[in-house]
Amino acid sequence: MNATSQAHCGSRLRMAVGLTGVLMLAACASMPPAPTASLQAAQRAISTAERAEAGRYAPEELSEARTRLASADTAVSEQRMIMAERFADESRVEAELASAKTANVKAKAVNDEMTRSNDTLIDEMQRSSGDKP
Amino acid sequence: MTRINHKDVMLRGTLIATTVASVLLAACAAAPVKPDGAAEARNKLTQLQADPNLGSRAPLAMKEADSAVRVAEQPQDDKELAAYRVYLADRKVDIARAQAETSLAEDQRAALSAQRERERLNARTREADAAHLAAASSERQADAANLAAASSEQQATELQRQIDVLQARPTDRGLVLTLGDVLFETGRSGLKMGATGNLNKLVAFLNRYPDRTALIEGYTDSVGSEDYNQGLSERRADSVKSYLVGEGIGATRLSATGKGERDPVASNDSAGGRQQNRRVEVIISNPAAALR
How far apart are CA B110 and CA B133, in angstroms? Predict the structure, then answer.
């Protein structure tokens, strides 16, 4: 009797432990980790764009990237981790676009300046050769 | 007739088969629906890849854009996931374009740089040429100036020679040529025949320097009345002028005046002094331009 009762008790304990484990797992599943890597990547991409003066050359893209990162943070605080990760990815790509556009605008500006100075050079030469044929 | 009927039947059969096939195909195509915006992203990418200047640039970004577009094109029931994928694809195509354009600009910069070097070299060459030209021209000017200096020096030498021939003496009033009384008979104003040698030298000189004018002044000694001497000095001066005009010197260049007994150059007490006082002086103007 005692033995059976003990055995019964042990099996109940095991069941309780198992149940707790399942509950804990379930809790874990309902609380997925924040997409830290994606958030950090977005933040890095924004910093890179800022250093390249994207605020001046691609302000719309940079501002959009910041907005998306803010949305990602909000989603984390609301436990919507999948949304958070997507916002973070979008923010990173937007910041990368800001950097790419900044580089492009700068490269074109340099070329424009060179074209202008070349034209001036040609102009001056034609003028001076016109003075002394 | 029967043949036509047979053909008709065959045509109809083909038509039905085609219709069935197309309906089936349509059903097939309708099943996977591409998410909204995926087609636009694909279009942008296709345009970029077809651009002859950009298509082969930024290969890594191009590849990433292409895979992102492929992912975005997959049918997806989850609208949010589909929108996220389209967003990524769209931005990655934009990134690829920006990078390709930057790469193109960098290549163009190399060409611009080469052009600038060419133009600079041209400018330097031209400057050097111009400097050579200027140097050559100033050399020529210097030569011309030297020539002019040499020639004016020659002219001055020649003038001095002429003055020496004329036995004239330079004074503040100009060159003064004194013609002695040997020109005239005593008390007469007509020129002595054969006494015109000195006058002919004067004619030659005035012909050689046509911008010079001459003032002819007659003088006498104190023998005789003052009035008479005044008249005589005037007549003698006039006859010298007439002779010069007769030799072709313009009358406007010549003026004649009588000074009478005034301004003797020697004492009238001796015969020798009186002889010196009986004279005609020709003062040849000394225009500044003539000596330059």
Answer: 34
Residue A8 lies in a domain: no
For chain B, which residues score pLDDT lower than 50? 1-2, 289-292
Query: What are the chain B neighbours of A96 within 8 Å (beta carbons)?
Result: 91, 95
Distance CA(A102)–CA(A55), nearest Å, equals 9
How many angstroms separate the CA atoms of B216 and B255, rounded? 6
The boundaries of the domain holding residue A99 are 32-106
Strand, coil or helix: B190: coil
Query: Each residue of B174-206: pLDDT tens digit?
Result: 888 887 766 777 777 777 766 677 788 888 888
Contact list in A for residue B112 (CB cut-off 8 A) is 111, 114-115, 118
Residue in chain A lying closest to B124 (CA): A125
The pLDDT tens digits of the residues spanning B151-182 come to: 888 887 877 787 777 778 888 888 888 877 66
Place of tokens 């003797």: B264
pTM: 0.51
Q: How many domains does chain A have?
A: 1
Sequence-ordered strand ranges (E) for chain B: 169-171, 174-179, 214-219, 254-258, 279-284
> What gap in Å lies between CA A101 and CA A106, rounded to an integer?
8
Q: Give domain status of residue A9, yes or no.
A: no
Task: Decide if A7 is inside a domain.
Answer: no
Does A93 fall in a domain? yes
